[in-house]
Design brief:
Helix content: 25-40%
Bound molecules: adenosine-5'-triphosphate, magnesium ion
Shape: elongated
Number of strands: 11
CATH architecture of the largest domain: 3-Layer(aba) Sandwich
Strand content: 25-35%
Number of domains: 2
CATH topology of the largest domain: D-Maltodextrin-Binding Protein, domain 2
Largest sheet: 6 strands, mixed
Length: 217
């Protein structure tokens, strides 16, 4: 356990961190080091009562669920896979926006395959979300778990289609894939440990309010 008495916020590097910086600044939180260049995983901020922990995007809900972080910022994609247990999700920050889609090789008639009741091989890192989506449509699928580069799977003959995040569509196009179905729009959410919010409301509530105000701008 750590001796830190303040509030701990879990963040991932890369896209979410870059888009979170202005929201943090609006809450008076300025990291003392850049996580992209620092090897430190615990980053102090200009506020002595707030620190950051830097974790993999998919690990953010786990840190907050178990109270190792009081708050975090995670994509809805990651939250759906995690399940959201023990988490309060008070603010849609409207950052890191994209959509979760089904994509298939140009020339594969996805709609016809679905109509004919074909059994589809789907590669994705979003197993739970994909399972729920296809079950709701009554489509039979074999789900194949991958950890990255989903676009390769249909090209290499591993799958008929993929479920992945798309923003511009450039990566799909570069690999001769087309979006055949949108599953849902995705953005990042502020998440809060439910128990921490009850016990430490006086410290955490103002941060939630600051993020909510910053997200409106
Ligand atoms: P890692 O790179 O550590 O394996 P990751 O690939 O999940 O993890 P990122 O690519 O930085 O990490 O994605 C983090 C989050 O950013 C995703 O969970 C999603 O919510 C959002 N995101 C991913 N891709 C896009 C995109 N193309 N446009 C906008 N937001 C995106
Ligand atoms: Mg990535």
């Amino acid at each position: 356990m750590s001796d830190f008495a303040g509030v701990t916020l879990a963040l991932s590097k890369g896209r979410i961190f870059q888009e979170t910086l202005p929201l943090l600044a609006a809450a008076g939180i300025v990291p003392r080091e850049d996580p992209e260049s620092s090897r430190k995983l615990i980053l102090p901020t200009q506020r002595p009562d707030v620190r950051l922990v830097i974790v993999r995007a998919a690990d953010v809900p786990t840190y907050v669920q178990h109270g190792a972080a009081d708050l975090g910022i995670a994509g809805k994609d990651v939250l759906l896979e995690h399940g959201g247990m023990g988490l309060y999700q008070p603010v849609d920050l409207k950052i890191a926006r994209c959509r979760l889609c089904v994509a298939a090789p140009r020339g594969f008639d996805y709609a016809a395959a679905v109509r004919q009741g074909a059994r589809l091989r789907i590669a994705t890192k979003y197993i739970e979300t994909a399972r729920n989506h296809f079950a709701a449509k009554g489509v039979h699928v074999d789900l194949i778990k991958l950890y990255g580069s989903m676009e390769l799977a249909p090209l290499a003959g591993l799958a008929d289609a993929i479920v992945d995040l798309v923003s511009s569509g450039a990566t799909l196009a570069a690999n001769d894939l087309v979006e055949v179905e949108e599953i849902m729009p995705i953005s990042s959410r502020l998440i809060v440990n439910q128990a921490a919010l009850k016990v430490r409301r006086a410290e955490i509530r103002p941060l939630i309010d600051a993020f909510a105000r910053a997200a409106e701008h």
